[in-house]
Every structure is written in structure tokens, then in C-alpha cells.
Amino acid sequence: MTDLHIGENLGQANGSVQMHVKQLKHFINGEFIQTTGIEFFDLISPVNGQIYAQSPNATQQDVDYAYDCAKAAFKVWRRSTPSMRQKALLAFADALETHADQLVEVQSLETGQLKHMIAAEEIKTSADHIRFFAGAARCLEGKSTGEYLEGFTSSIRREPIGVVGQVAPWNYPLMMAVWKIAPALAAGNTVVLKPSDTTPNSTLLLAAIAAPFFPKGAINVILGLADAGSKVVSHPVPAIVSITGSVRAGLQVAASAASNLAKAHLELGGKAPVLVFEDADLEKATDAISVAGFFNAGQDCTAAARVLVQESIYEAFMEKMLEKTKKIHCGLPDDETALYGALNNQRQLVHIQGFLDRLPAHAKIVTGGKQVTQYAGYYFEPTIICGLEQHDEAIQNEIFGPIVTIQTFKDEDDALDKANDVEFGLASSVWTNDHSRSMRFSRDLDFGTVWVNAHIPLTAEMPHGGFKKSGYGKDLSNYGFEEYTRVKHVMSAYED
């Protein structure tokens, strides 16, 4: 049994946030709050399969209290100026970097991710994204004030939308929490956030780090299982509910939001096609695809998990891809030679193994395909599968593990048909030296992001979000920032 206590005063003599793990508490109104309920569940480290903490499962009373505090804070924070919000967010980003080592340790324990990857890919990136939204807070744009109807002056107000209900996933718990709270706070909103039931600790620590720079109640973290998340997104208070998660969860959130006429923001699953044409640089392509396919154990909705290779270069591509995949290995959190760590949880291990157990007879596991048994936790080999047909389960559904499928295509029409022939529309990539072809596919691929001769990089200035069953709404960029605002027309009569 473990408890998380984080010192309220970040300016302690030793300059660190103190953690003593026993039994977790919610973070509400700027402090850690004991649940009103009696239901707790175990948190298990994917590194060793051992229980390291217990989390409460939030009651309706817990959620109501969090929203009451968020409503009270909104009355204050909505009146803050853009410069005030920017100052608070910049201070938050600096504090996040100050406590980077602690965040790395906490997140590694709960995710099994490699420590050096968390430091490089999440801490650094999260701080950058917070700083982006700090700047965005001061750059809202709208139609110019003017006389659009004789005798009246019209102007546009862009306002915070209100209290925001959010649910974050477990694959990048720190960065995904930042993607949720940073634009919401930058726009003048307040937040009630539920992290994944398997990865609450890094979000709690993040909230404690942020709390001194914002009004009490501006950031609230509710812990629990799926039913706690349902309480957060179905609550009548939030003006917008946002989730990063599965299609199933997204459909539930959309229905809950609709019942309250709340706005919904859904960043859901993906099944990214990676199109490799015969004129592509195979060395560069396989270097990038082997990393983008297995990074974070493939637990990324934009992972290069579905590769389509032109028939004429299939053999050459496979030779290079196999060569590079066999050099990749998973490892314990301190292993700086590894590309990825553990799968997040036991359910995910069973989920991935289920895909392999159900493979049709015409499919072939070329490499990998097994759990790594030298470690006590949930580790899985980098795996490549060939021979699958377009409508096989492993092609159509998101696996979310270190598994890459490789298909062939004949020509551009065949490539485009196969690429678009899934229910998801989040991300894609095209590998070619033909500029005209890259432009045609950038136009015709039905995905929210199209990379050309690259796969998986993101930047704060550009939007992240998909089409079809990948959801709607954008994270990052000014487009993501505007999701958390509302537009008001003010019209004033006057006489000449």
C-alpha cells in the first residue's frame, strides 16, 4: 500500500518536491484530498509486476467537489489577463524542468518507460508545449471591430469556454496531461482531469508542481477507474469534455457530452499507413520506420505500425527492415541502449498476445512474436508480421504494441485504396523522392497528419488530430488553443 504526498511548498530548502508513497489521494483545490469512498485498487508496476501503490476510485461526491472548486476558480481565472496567464504558464514550465528527475522516476515506475526517453521526449517536449501556449494566450485573433450594419458597431470577444472535464491516457501520461491542461489554462479555463487508472502518479506530481502558479481549484485531478472517468465527462458542469483514448471511450464521451449539450474534443485511436514507393531512399526509410514503429513499445496512436511497400522493392525493403529490427531491443528503465521499455499493463500484454493468437493461416510472423521472459514485467519482442490481407483484424484494428505489419501494393491507386481503407484517420506517411506524388498523396490521404519522408515528429505550432473514428478536434497549435475558447458578438448602437 502506498501513499503519495507532495510538499505543498515547492520552495523547500532542498528545492525538491517530497514524495512519500502510501495510499493515493485526489488533488483538489490546491491540496491532496482523501476520497469520500472506500473503494481502492492496486497499482502495479509494469517493470516487475509488483504492487507499488493503491488508488481510490472516485465517488460522485469527490467529482462534485472537484467541479465546485473548478467553478469557484473559474470566476477568478477567467478575469485574468493574457499576460498574467502567460506569466503563470512560463513559471509552470520552469518548475516542471526543475523537478524533471522526480517526474522521470515517478513515470518510469508506473509506465515502464525508459528514463532517458522520458527525459528527452516528454519532459523537454512538455515544457516546450506549455511555453507555446503561454505565448498563444497573448495572440488571440478575430474579425476587426467595425460597422457592418449602418448605425451599429460590432466587435468580437473570444472568451474562455468555462470549466473543462478531461480524461488522459496512459501511454504518455505526463505529456498528454500537459496537452489537456496547458491550452485550457492559457485560454482562462479551469480543469478537472482524470488520468488513466494505471498512471496517476506523474499527473498528481504535475498538478502539485503547477498549483502555486494558479488559483486554488484551477487544476484538479480525480483518480479512479473507467466509471470515475464517466462521472467526470458526464457531469453537468463542464462546458467542454476532452478525452484522449480508445474509440469505445470516445463514443461514450460524445454521447455524454451530447446529453448535456457540452462540446466534445476527441483524440482517439489510429492505424497509420506508411507508404514506401520504389523510388524511396530505403536506408533512410527503414531507419526511421523501425524506430517509429517500435518507439514506446508501439504504444502510440501515430506509430508506424502499418507499412505498405511497393511490390518491386518488397524484398530489398524487408532485408533492411529485418536487419534493423533485430538490432532493436526492449529493456529496463535504466537501459540507455534499449529503444523501449515495458508494455503499460497486464491487460495490454493479453491484448497484444490475442492479436497474435488470432492471426490467420496466411499470415507469417517474420521476427519476434513473444513475451520477453528475462524480465519480471510486461515486456514484448519487436515483431514484424507479413502476409496479411487488407481486411484482416491486424490490419484494420489498432494493436498498440511493438508490432509492425508489412503489406505490398502495386501502384499509386492500390496504395491509396489500402491506406484509406480503415476506420481511423489520424496520421500517415509517404516515402518517395517524387515531389508530385508526395503532393498528390498529401491531398488524397484521409488522415489528419501526412508526413513526407518522415514519420512521428510533432511540433507545438502544428495541430494534432484526426478524421473518421480517430475523433475530432485538435491538440497543439492555435487550432488546439481555440478549442478552449468561445466566440461572442457584441453589437452596439450609435448615432452620428
- How many distinct helices? 15
Q: What is the subunit organization of this protein?
A: single chain
In CATH terms, the superfamily of the largest domain is Aldehyde Dehydrogenase, Chain A, domain 1
| β-sheet strand percentage | 15-25%
Note the gap between the termini. Answer: 74 Å
Structural class: alpha/beta
What is the class of the largest domain in the CATH system? Alpha Beta
CA radius of gyration is 23 Å
Question: What count of structural domains?
Answer: 2
| Strand line-up across the major sheet | 14-15-16-13-12-18-19
What does the average pLDDT come to? 94
- What is the number of beta strands? 22
Helix content estimate: 25-40%
Shape-level CATH architecture of the largest domain? 3-Layer(aba) Sandwich
The unreliable regions are 1-20
Largest sheet: 7 strands, mixed
